[in-house]
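Exam review. A common question shows you a sequence with its structure tokens and asks you to describe the fold in words. Practice with the pair below. Do the first one on your own.
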Amino acid sequence: MSVQGRLDDPALLAVVATRVDAARRLLREIASDFSPAAFASSLGAEDMVLTHLIVRDRLDIEIFSLDTGRLPVETYDLIARLQRHYDLRLRLYYPRHDLIEAWTREHGINAFYESVELRKGCCHIRKVEPLQRALAGCKAWITGMRAQQSSTRDGLPIRSFDAASGDRGLEKFNPLADWSEREVWAYIKLNQVPYNALHDKFYPSIGCAPCTRPVTPGEDVRAGRWWWENPESKECGLHARTA
């Protein structure tokens, strides 16, 4: 697991309780005031926290995920565990096969290693375009992003307006924006929340199998994502930052 922490630390437990109360209030507000709302789960540790909170409070928020076609087997195993654990049949969105066929025919099956432009092109087909379909008709979308995850997420707000998503733009919420990694894992352990087995193999951030590797002690939590690129380019296009 990425972070081991003592669960008998009163200070940690108090902070987690405060964080949870704030996240639950926000999620209830979203379900009430921004329906239809959807939670885009990438099935990472943070997303498991939000899944647990949404299911626990029986909120009217759709939970979906993007199956890029190149996910690790451990991620598919987690999808099956979610159904057993929560009786949750996660809604999955897939890339358009015609776009995948055209892209791989022109560039090759692993062309994303060759340049940032090609990698982002692959991400657009496998993630961005399916996300746009998933969010069609929604008034708000929820993510599990945290500000501490990488330099590209520094200063991440809990709420913003994403003019590029949905039909005419929509509200975007990051309920765990101010959570630490230690707090995330404390919540998971305290509540016996299912999580991806790769986290126990030094994968703090998990995406497509060819684009994810384990990290070494002291590395940034997203160092294993697109590890051949500079940190400043390590986003897939789902979460473009605007001025």
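Now try the second one, then compare your answer with the model answer below.
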Amino acid sequence: MRRVEHVMGFPVSLRVDDTVVPDAAVDAVFAWLHEVDARFSPFRADSEVSRYGRGELSADGLSAGLVEVLGICDRYRTATGGAFDVRLPGRALDPCAVVKGWSVQRAADLLTGAGLRRFCLNAGGDVVVSGGPWRVGVRHPGIADRLCAVLALTDGAVATSGRYERGDHIVDGRTGRPATGLDSLTVVAPTLTEADTVATAAFALGAEGVEWAAAQDGCEVFAVLPGGRVLRTDGFPTAGAAAA
């Protein structure tokens, strides 16, 4: 079974290789992601995130999901000394760096809970897989039609933060300026919540973020620095690579 929908501003594709695939399980995945988009998008004036950011909702009135997301945001803000911060001065509250991975991991958990064992869920290039082997390509940060690495994954998640799609959009909260110390940074972790948040937080830290990400429990890292130098942890599950 294969299905693609545009959600949260990017394509989300699901491939399931189980023999029997309940339609209800697949429908639930995309319904959940559309719900997340409506509730947690900072680009929707009526979303829970936007209303809370404007002071129209109190902390006591937030949904359990947003409380969890904001807790993750605060944990990584502390862990990075403020480099990762979803509450930047002069900007609206924007927890997207956590919401994406968190929500897609929840979607994957829905599939597992429905009894599915072999699937690949790809949300705009951030991927969670089950029941591999699966091969996941990492885009070259300087050449759009090339890969700089191919991963071999059985179960787990991979996320990449970089400058090549949206420019210098990740800000170092310590300085208020765009983070430019890395061209891209890819993290493999047990869940996409971890992989996506660690990748963004490490990118905000700049060059020092590579070592920081590698020190996070269960995380393996592949980073491309300006000039093409590649750094990777020994356990990064590379099935093949090209020079960056």
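Model answer, second protein: Helices lie at 23-40, 48-53, 64-79, 96-113, 192-205, 208-214. The domain at 2-241 is CATH 3.10.520.10 (T-fold). Full marks require stating both points clearly.
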